[in-house]
Amino acid sequence: MYNLVINNDTISLDKIEGRTIDMELVIRPEDKENGYKKFALRFVQNERFHTELCFRPDESVLKIDRKFSGNERALVHQRRCLVNGDADELKLRVVLDRFSVEIFINDGEQVMSAVIFTEQEAKGISFFAEGAAKIDIVKYDLV
User: Fold this and answer.
1) What's the helix, strand, coil split of the chain in %, to 5?
2) N or C, where is the chain less crowded by C-beta within 10 Å?
3) Which of 94, 138, 98, 126 has the alpha carbon at shortest distance from 113?
4) Is residue 111 within 8 Å of 92, Cβ to Cβ?
């Protein structure tokens, strides 16, 4: 388990990578008076490709974006979801298998999913925050 603060930075963490994982995240502002502007999780990532999950608390919108996933087909690359609940805390469960991602929002109140065609060698995961976001991360490998 990781408990960390990301402040205007992008980070990668030891042992947080892979294409078959189950990861739980809790994201909240470090300082409620000066909340973060954006949180992003990039996964299925290498030097050329990635898929991004992005949350902007001021809009309460969670977006999954596959436009940099390496897919040339004319697919819908972005999906958006208006997040219900407390803006001070967002709970995500991200389940990645080799060709798809499922995102469970706030204990399953809402669910998003997408197919990912990125090459299997793309296993990187990184975290970004604009402003200071406090994040709890628990990751399990699936077999």
Assistant:
1) 0, 55, 45
2) C
3) 94
4) no
To the question of pTM greater than 0.85 for the whole model, the response is yes
From first to last of its 143 residues, what are the pLDDT tens digits of the chain? 999 999 999 999 999 999 999 999 999 999 988 889 999 999 999 999 999 999 999 999 999 999 888 876 656 688 899 998 666 899 999 999 999 999 999 999 999 999 898 999 999 999 999 999 999 999 999 98
Taking a C-beta distance cutoff of 8 angstroms, is the pair 17, 137 a contact? no
83 conformational bin, left if phi > 0, alpha if psi -120 to 50, beta if neither: beta
Lookup result for tokens 């389940």: 95
**CA separation for the pair 11, 136 (Å, rounded):** 14
Using the CB atoms, write b or e for 42-69: b if 16+ within 10 Å: bbbbeeebbbbbbbbbeeeebbbbbebb
C-alpha triplet 128, 85, 88: angle, nearest 5°: 45
The residue with tokens 């300082």 is: 31
> What are the tokens at 12?
């990668």
Are 56 and 37 in contact by the 8 Å Cβ rule? The answer is yes
